[in-house]
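Look over this one:
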Amino acid sequence: EVHAAACDITDAGALDALLADIAQRGTPLKGVLHSAMVIDDGLVRNLDDERFAAVLAPKLAGAWNLHRATRDTKLDLFVVYSSATTFLGNPGQSSYVAANSFLEALIAQRRAAGLPGTYMAWGPLDDVGFLARNDETREALQARIGGVSITSAEALAALERALLAMNAGEAVVRLDWQALSLGMPAARARRYAELHARGSHEPARQGGVQMREQIAGLPFADALHVVEETLQAQIARILHMSPEKIETGRSILDMGMDSLMGMELGMAVEESFQVKLSIMTIAEGATVHSLAQRIVESIQAHDDAVETNGVAAQVAAVAAQHALDVGAHALADVADALAANANAPAASAEFA
């Protein structure tokens, strides 16, 4: 028999009443599977307490209430659905990633106490669930992680393996590491070493390299025209508009692009031209023309004089990693100051 009962698991009293009703039927509760969630994506600077709490509630309060209410019940399984974004991150999903990180920590606590617990950190599923009902969200997520969806059959098979092996949990996701690393500043961190090694065997993406070489070899005006056309096509795809409606002199924010779309555009630019655009550049109301000008200047200036100063390169890398839109002169000043400090004789000091 299947009995569907409506219950807000963030309401501890309502959950206790539901469990009491189950107990009265005479069939013991043997398993819990938590898959509740709320999606409300947005960059941190656009979030407020209400939006943050709405995403946290079903996972933090909901899972904690289930844990508390069943601690003394002899369960065969206690499964929570997390997300592969706890391993990889995802622009615009800080609340969601934090909520899922709590779930995984709760499983660790349960297992330490001798209680059953398993988390499954899913990648996007294409045939059931939220992403199956929201094509645009699924496509954007797939673009960011460089992967394709998994099916519910693959997911259930992975869940069965994890339960039979009594694992704490695992991530199940199909991804393209080279594509993922484009929009992931921490891609070279040690914890991703194995994925990076596997990705090195994949054929390199040549599109961006070829486009960059083409831009470097063109006169400035011609290069600007090529980049503008490419940007128009990319922005049109993101906004679901036709390219001819993307005006080169109009702010892309006025055309309807929000911060998350700006992040997606930044990754598209990096893949197409091997140039990083900070989110601040886009958020300041840039136009197609101003973005194209910045891209062409970056490529052609780099082609004319390759940066040889190791300190300056490190400063620029840190600025890019933290999405800082800092001018070249300011970066040079910081690099010069760091180099001067590094070359200065060590000062001695005595402490009483």
